């Protein structure tokens, strides 16, 4: 599926700009990780999984990752793609598959973390990740009342699944978000005009 068709599918099931921006952010972060980890030839696949990972969340929050397979199959996605999308809910939503491939482990780890980083950026005078340092992010991570909906346990488990230190996951995800922030914000503004 080409990106424009995938974006139309995302917008069919997601109307809130917050959810669309999150999808665009995770798409960009997954593309960055694919390139950083030596999977350049699969970067489009990694990015598409990131774009559509929460396809069912807005309309079916209590059935997140349960409704996604039907939506994605009807749109023509194969079982590998569906497994990748649904594996980010492992241990969070009942019946979701375990993340096996490196890409699935990255999505599992980075999904919640992008939310935490995004929330932390909004608290900064710059409203940006460009000037955010790791120590500042770690402080927000330790503050359980800040962005309480972002599961610290899932982020920690994600780092463990990857065999990385938490700092490494945070630094890489911060870098990925810095590299894509302007592009994501520009596309979000453009899409907001069409919602």
Morphology call? globular
Q: How many discrete domains? A: 1
Low-confidence stretches: none
Please give the share of residues in helix: 55-70%
Beta-strand residue percentage: under 5%
Tally of strands = 0
End-to-end separation in angstroms reads 22 Å
Mean pLDDT comes to 95
User: In this structure, how is the largest beta sheet organized?
Assistant: none
Number of helices: 9
- Gyration radius, rounded: 16 Å
The helix/strand order is: HHHHHHHHH
What structural category arises from helix and sheet content?
A: mainly alpha
Describe this structure in words.
The structure is a single chain. The chain has 195 residues and is mostly helical. It has one domain. 64% of the residues lie in helices and 0% in strands. The chain contains nine helices and no strands. Helix 2 runs antiparallel to helix 3, helix 2 crosses helix 6 and helix 6 runs antiparallel to helix 8. The model has no long low-confidence stretch (mean pLDDT 95).
Short description:
This protein is mainly alpha-helical and 195 residues long. The protein has nine helices and no strands. Helix 6 packs antiparallel against helix 8 and helix 6 packs across helix 9.
Quick tags:
single chain; 195 residues; globular
Record the SSE blueprint.
Layout: H1 3-13, H2 17-36, H3 43-52, H4 68-74, H5 79-86, H6 102-122, H7 134-142, H8 152-162, H9 166-192
Helix pairs in contact: 2-3, 2-6, 2-9, 3-5, 4-5, 6-8, 6-9
